């Protein structure tokens, strides 16, 4: 049994990760300031004697003794990370410094939830880990993209300079149960709009692409990365099946059998035009890891989650 700290543990990915780690017989400390997370996501875990919930902001120091740290604390949806951009940078950068200082002091292995956003609006397609990205340092998305890029730098520097045992994963758009209904990201927005019979809001012409990964595939990849030896990453974890946002809207309309219609809104500033992971490195280094759940199956599970939730 390991003692594991999950920062951002009450969020979408964190809550799914906490559950899996407990199911595997570990002791889990879930740290969250509830900015975008919700106790409802972990309500079933409260009462488990091996689960502990801590209200704390990672941009302030935190002292604990654990074997492993998953650093997930950070708002991930554009509407939330742009609400208070300075706080978003502090969460990514000061949060990384504090969690790395903690990992260094207690000799714990630490995994950083980085993002495909480090590639910005990519002019290499699909994106491989050795692509350095195309990121605007002063736009509305910069607090998130540059904060995450700086966190990767800190992770690598603590590894090289202080021999901290680090792991960096670059997560591509992920969806599934425990996303908040008001999360604001495209999959949850479209499903909620469809279930409520409201207009499906597409920003721009809908020709921009994303590659959508179901949560269970991500959790499997994260755990394999944490267990891997002699490999720090960064490594892409995503589903390489790419869809336009218009195709996603049409699929959700079909699966929910809604009467909702598509409404086109002005495009968002600096919205990446395409995004698709090259996952050959993950496949090679993480025992043949590849996503198993494709979009139709994952959307059906997510739709049934939101039907119960709203
Ligand atoms: P989420 O918003 O559901 O979860 C983030 C959690 O972090 C929330 O519970 C929030 O309350 C908490 N948090 C935010 N700021 C904090 C702070 N200062 N101190 C403590 N807790 C704080 O988002 P998610 O989708 O679960 O994302 C989790 C992580 O994965 C994030 O780091 C995100 O950048 C990364 N990621 C997610 C995706 C995706 O598609 N879901 C893609 C790339 C990267
Ligand atoms: N830190 C923490 N928990 C710990 C150890 C350190 O939050 O258990 C914080 C500490 O407050 C510091 C940061 O991590 O601000 C970086 O620690 P490090 O030892 O690398 O740097 P230093 O303390 O020398 O600034
Ligand atoms: N998007 C959209 N309608 C929405 C929410 C998002 O058309 O209600 C688009 C958004 O402009 C972007 C894509 O869907 O092109 C993915 O957006 P999301 O916020 O989910 O993630 P990210 O842009 O960070 O990949």
Write the layout of secondary structure elements.
Elements: E1 3-7, H1 12-23, E2 27-32, E3 51-55, E4 68-71, H2 78-81, H3 85-106, E5 109-115, H4 142-162, E6 166-171, E7 174-175, H5 186-196, E8 200-203, E9 209-211, E10 213-214, H6 215-227, E11 235-237, E12 242-244, H7 245-256, E13 262-265, H8 280-285, H9 295-309
Parallel strand pairs: 1-2, 1-4, 2-3, 4-5, 5-6, 6-11, 7-10, 8-13
Antiparallel strand pairs: 9-12
Helix pairs in contact: 3-4, 5-7, 5-9, 7-9
The structure holds nicotinamide-adenine-dinucleotide (NAD) and uridine-5'-diphosphate (2 copies).
One uridine-5'-diphosphate is lined by residues 77-78, 173, 185-186, 189, 201-203, 208, 210, 245, 268, 271.
Domain NAD(P)-binding: 5-302
InterPro entries: NAD(P)-bd_dom, NAD(P)-bd_dom_sf, UXS-like
Protein name: UDP-glucuronate decarboxylase
Can you walk through the features of this model?
Helix 3 packs parallel to helix 4 and helix 5 crosses helix 9. The two termini are 37 Å apart. The chain is built from 9 helices and 13 strands. It has one domain: 3-Layer(aba) Sandwich (Rossmann fold). The strands form 4 sheets. Strands 3-2-1-4-5-6-11 form a 7-stranded parallel beta sheet, sandwiched between helices. 45% of the residues are buried. It is globular and about 55 Å long. With 310 residues, it is an alpha/beta fold. Helix content is 37%, strand content 17%. The structure holds nicotinamide-adenine-dinucleotide and uridine-5'-diphosphate (UDP) (2 copies).
């Amino acid at each position: 049994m390991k003692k594991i700290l999950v920062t951002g543990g009450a969020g979408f990915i964190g809550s799914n990760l906490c559950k899996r780690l407990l199911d595997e017989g570990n002791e889990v400390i879930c740290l969250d300031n509830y900015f975008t997370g919700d106790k409802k996501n972990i309500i079933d875990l409260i009462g488990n004697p091996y689960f502990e919930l801590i209200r704390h902001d990672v941009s302030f120091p935190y002292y604990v003794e654990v074997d492993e740290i998953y650093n997930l604390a950070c708002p991930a949806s554009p509407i939330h990370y742009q609400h208070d951009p300075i706080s978003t940078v502090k969460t990514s950068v000061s949060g990384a410094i504090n969690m790395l200082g903690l990992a260094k002091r207690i000799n714990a292995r630490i995994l950083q939830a980085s993002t495909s956003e480090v590639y910005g609006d990519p002019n290499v397609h699909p994106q491989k880990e050795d692509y350095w990205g195309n990121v605007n340092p002063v736009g509305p998305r910069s607090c998130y993209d540059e904060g995450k890029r700086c966190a990767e730098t800190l992770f690598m520097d603590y590894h090289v300079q202080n021999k901290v045992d680090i792991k960096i994963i670059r997560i591509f758009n992920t969806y599934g149960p425990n996303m908040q209904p008001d999360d604001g990201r495209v999959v949850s927005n479209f499903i909620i709009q469809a279930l409520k019979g409201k207009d499906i809001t597409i920003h721009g012409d809908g020709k921009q692409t994303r590659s959508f990964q179901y949560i269970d595939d991500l959790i499997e990849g994260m755990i394999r990365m944490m267990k891997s030896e002699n490999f720090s990453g960064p490594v892409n974890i995503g589903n390489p099946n790419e869809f336009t946002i218009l195709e996603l809207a049409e699929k959700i309309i079909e699966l929910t059998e809604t009467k909702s219609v598509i409404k086109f809104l002005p495009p968002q500033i600096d919205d990446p035009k395409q995004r698709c992971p090259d996952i050959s490195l993950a496949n090679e280094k993480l025992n043949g890891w590849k996503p198993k759940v494709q979009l139709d199956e994952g959307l059906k599970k997510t739709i049934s989650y939101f039907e119960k939730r709203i």
